[in-house]
Amino acid sequence: MYIARILYPVKVLGPGNRIGIWFVGCHHRCKGCSNPELWKVDEKYFITIDQVEKLIRTVAAENEIDGFTITGGAGETEGKSARDDGYLCADRPTSWYFQN
User: Fold this and answer.
1) DSSP 61
2) Predicted TM-score of the model (pTM)
3) Which of 28, 52, 32 is nearest to 40 (CA)?
């Protein structure tokens, strides 16, 4: 998968202290997009699910995570995969910020 940013704490895209994950790759090219620099998939953004999980576990070891915010990319591709593959914690709220 392709992820540009994983940030903590994100406090503006959902309640509490959240981990924000910005996916890369979107074919919609919406006018007014807040992250047009993330439209094009670039190999420098490639990361495995194992690497993402390790980052999340590292943050969780020393911080309380109230949920996740998933944004960027095309909702029907990367974000759907992240949700359906179940690598996010099912016991924490997840906000999905996709515009089509």
Assistant:
1) H
2) 0.74
3) 28
| Element holding 34 (H helix, E strand) | none
Mode of pairing for the β-strands spanning 67-72 and 94-97 = parallel
Q: Which amino acid is at 45?
A: Y
What is the residue-wise DSSP string for 5-26?
Answer: EEEEEE-SSSSSSEEEEEE---
Q: Is 43 left (phi over 0), alpha (psi -120 to 50) or beta?
A: alpha
Per-residue model confidence as pLDDT tens digits over 3-35: 999 999 999 888 899 999 999 988 888 888 888
Task: For residue 22, give the nearest of 61, 66, 52, 63 by alpha carbon.
Answer: 52
Helix, strand or coil, per DSSP, at residue 96: strand
